[in-house]
Amino acid sequence: xxxxxxxxxxxxxxxxxxxxxxxxxxxxxxxxxxxxxxxxxxxxxxxxxxxxxxxxxxxxxxxxxxxxxxxxxxxxxxxxxxxxxxxxxxxxxxxxxxxxxxxxxxxxxxxxxxxxxxxxxxxxxxxxxxxxxxxxxxxxxxxxxxxxxxxxxxxxxxxxxxxxxxxxxxxxxxxxxxxxxxxxxxxxxxxxxxxxxx
Amino acid sequence: xxxxxxxxxxxxxxxxxxxxxxxxxxxxxxxxxxxxxxxxxxxxxxxxxxxxxxxxxxxxxxxxxxxxxxxxxxxxxxxxxxxxxxxxxxxxxxxxxxxxxxxxxxxxxxxxxxxxxxxxxxxxxxxxxxxxxxxxxxxxxxxxxxxxxxxxxxxxxxxxxxxxxxxxxxxxxxxxxxxxxxxxxxxxxxxxxxxxxxxxxxxxxxxxxxxxxxxxxxxxxxxxxxxxxxx
Lengths: 198, 231
Description:
heterodimer; A: mainly alpha; Rna Polymerase Sigma Factor, Chain: A; 2 domains; 9 helices; B: CATH 2.40.50.140; five-stranded mixed barrel
């Protein structure tokens, strides 16, 4: 039982150690991350599920090849997210595609999480928001969307975001601050346009 | 339908994919640290030579060269060495940021680490005397060096303005000796009420700097004699 990799109480890092002894154990690590990483790929790129699964498969293979490179000072999840993140943008570059607008469910989660931070609730027409969330999110730079995704949807802390994006924590804080500012600006801009047309 | 994990695992087995050996990864990380260290050392050598040039410059003779102090300072700044220092401090910053945890440092913090490492080690090398050997090595082996750096030879090769330096080749008496300047010209040096530091022992091979006035046929009367090097 002690070496049972399928034990859900085993930490990711313990599973890495077990994988280094026997590759069969890598399967358990992949299973743990399959769903959330597929979701993450779709969230940051907007690609179809089938394509996202191809990207994920490549990422898992790459991670396995580099498993000796895993540094136990990091969280395994940060390391894995970083590989998936890089692989996603490599895929987009190869396809010469820009990340597409995220779905409205995604947008609403972000806006819900940010409502207090942005202090926009009173100013904004909720019906309008519900209808135009995707449009608003599409006006935000890719780097800001990624950082908002990691913070509010993937629930990563600053250190984890720093390790995933390979940026200092100070830069992550600045990116988040600017992301929120840009989001607020986009919301107000969109609503003004909506009112003038309405 | 098979999950991504199952498909991936199958692919790993079928394509016989194996993890990269640890030594390759360790080597890659060490290469960046080694390049960082090398850049810091080269930057440090440049710093030590900057300190050497500044400390050895005779700041009291600019008047003889028809220059203001500001002009003298401007020509005396060792731009070449400063450029080498900045270049290698920046490259050490680049390598530091590319080490496995380098990205965790903010740009200003990483720049401070890189620049201060070179400055600190360079200062230690300066006090350790390594700088003299490096500078002489450069001056002797790179013909362009003296064109790029305003050296003591430039300052003390102006007999017509009262500044002359070179190597003592012969001592002809208590008030006369022969000197060869950096161009190879032989000078007869006369001393009348000449002042020189008490610790300066006249002998062949000694390098000196002199303030005085020239006379005809490569004769120079020295009012003040000082050692070529202050160290």
